[in-house]
Design a protein that fits this description.
Strand 5 and strand 6 form a beta hairpin. By secondary structure, this protein is of the alpha+beta class. The mean pLDDT is 94. The protein has three helices and six strands. It has a single domain, classed as Thiol Ester Dehydrase, Chain A (Roll), CATH 3.10.129.10.
Length: 155
């Protein structure tokens, strides 16, 4: 597996953190590694459903994004990913604080990839777990967008 370029990690994290969806959800990339991701949401009133707990959509968005970024760290140049299926188990409620999404790539094939993600609170309590199936498509590549540096370091 090629080595991720730290300059790419920093640049893509800045780019993604400024995207409309991440801004709307108060989500940010806290770390990317080979086949792994760490994303965080600082919980606000906007994340709560009418009964005062975080809405399930907050968990599902975090699982989807954490799974995507874990797998995306393993795609070669010129490939992008899109979610085609997601399975999610809600295990415990959250009300305040932060949600931490920990993504892990499980398998990347020629067409489909599989990742899993855990959502934890800052104390490590498991709040949700999910799997994300993603399709690899050349038309969705981030390559060359926004002047990003190369994704991988030369061997």
């Amino acid at each position: 597996m090629p080595t991720l370029n730290p300059a790419w990690v920093a640049a893509v994290s800045r780019l993604v953190d400024q995207s409309p969806y991440f801004q709307l959800q108060s989500m940010r990339i806290a770390g990317l590694g080979p086949g792994s991701s760490r994303l965080e949401i600082v919980l606000e009133h906007k994340h709560l459903q009418p009964f005062g707990m975080v809405h399930g959509g907050g968990f599902s968005g975090l699982v989807d994004a954490a799974g995507f970024w874990a797998l995306y760290t393993q795609t070669g140049p010129g490939l992008g990913l899109t979610t085609v299926e997601m399975k999610l188990n809600y295990l415990a409620p959250a009300v305040t604080g932060r949600l931490i999404g920990l993504g892990r790539a499980l398998k990347l094939g020629k067409t489909l990839g599989l990742a899993e993600a855990r959502v934890e609170d800052p104390q490590g309590r498991l709040l949700a777990h999910g799997t994300v199936t993603l399709m690899a498509l050349e038309s969705l590549s981030l390559g060359g967008q926004a002047g990003l540096p190369p994704k991988f370091l030369e061997s």
